[in-house]
Amino acid sequence: MKGQEVLMSSGDQQGSSDWATPKPFFDLLNQAFGPFTLDAAATAKTAKCDHYYSSRDNALEKPWKGTVFCNPPYGRGIADWIWKGYGESMLFSNDLVVMLLPARTDLKVFHDCIIPYAAAVLFVRGRIQFKLPGKKNSATFPSMVVVFDKHSAGCQFGYITQPTRTENGGVRVLTGLEER
Ligand SMILES: C[S@@+](CC[C@H](N)C(=O)[O-])C[C@H]1O[C@@H](n2cnc3c(N)ncnc32)[C@H](O)[C@@H]1O
Fold this sequence. Notes:
Blueprint: H1 9-12, H2 23-33, E1 38-39, E2 66-70, H3 78-89, E3 94-102, H4 108-117, E4 120-124, E5 129-132, E6 135-138, E7 143-148, E8 156-160, E9 164-165, E10 171-172, H5 176-179
Parallel strand pairs: 1-2, 2-3, 4-8
Antiparallel strand pairs: 3-7, 4-7, 5-6, 9-10
Helix pairs in contact: 3-4
The protein binds S-adenosylmethionine.
C-alpha cells in the first residue's frame, strides 16, 4: 500500500524534497551512464540537464525520452516515481533511467519493482551531502543508485563511492560492479 510508504526522514523535513544532487556526484553518474539528456525532477536552479521537468510540468505525466537522470522528491509518492522510471525505461524512446534514491530496502516498491526489474542497484558508500541554496546538508539516510535498462537481464548489486581526489588531482571512484 502506497500509504505505508511514508518515507524518509529527508522527505519529512521542510524543503528537503528540493535537495539538489551535488555536482561531483552527478558528474560521476553522468560519466558512467550518460550523457543524460533529461533531468526528470528539478527546478530551473537545480536542473542537471538543459532539458528538465519541474513540478509545474509534472514529470509523472510526461514521456521520459532519451537517457534520463532522476532524483525525485523523497516524500509520499516516491513509489510512483520509481514505477514511472521503470515503465518509461521499457519504451523504445528511452535509453536508460538512472535514479538516485534513499536506500529504503524495507519499502514494498523496493521488493516489487526494483529487485525484479532494475538492471543494477549501487549502494552509496557514506552519506551524500545534498544541497539547498545557501546550505549543505549531509543526508540523514543512506542512498542508492538504481538503473533501469530494458536490455538487461536481472539485477546486479554493488556499491558506489562518492568521488574523492587522488594525490595527483584525479578523481577516484569505486564501484563494486567493476571490481568483480
Ligand atoms: C530531490 S530534488 C532534485 C533536483 C535536481 N534534479 C538534482 O538532482 O539536483 C527533486 C525535484 O523535483 C521537483 N519536483 C517535484 N514534483 C515534481 C513533478 N511532479 N515533476 C517534476 N519535478 C518535480 C522538485 O521541485 C525538486 O526540485
